[in-house]
Design goal:
single chain, mainly alpha, 0% strand
Amino acid sequence: MANNYLQQGKYEQALKQYEKSLGIQREAGDREGEGVTLNNIATIYYEQDKPSKAVKYHAQALAIQRELGNRAREANSCWNIGTTYYSMGELVKAEEYIALSVEIAEQINHPDLENDRKTLERVRAILKSRWRLWLYNKSRTLLNWLRAVRGVE
């Protein structure tokens, strides 16, 4: 039922159902179900433009996937965290988690590997571009300071 609400964009109803499921899964010790539900809750928060909350829930899911040794779901959780950070403009963190996802995908021969690599390359290219811009601005600042110290226009 929660998945139907999610697909229909009825996020509050979906969230209530997922939270109820999460409580039951925790009580029953269903760690795998708990991890999946945490990712679903994170998706709701992402869709509601609450990326910080989404990261929090994805991180909880990641911890469970690692505990269970489920490499495919671990890669998925890393991917979700990375792309959420990307949407927040936190490219260094995005690159870290997307790179982890790609690394795991390579190890398990995940079917999305090539697309994931391309996304990682794009994130790294943006980071490199921003780094170059930062260096350029710093060098201009230094040059202007040196000119001022020497009295040169």
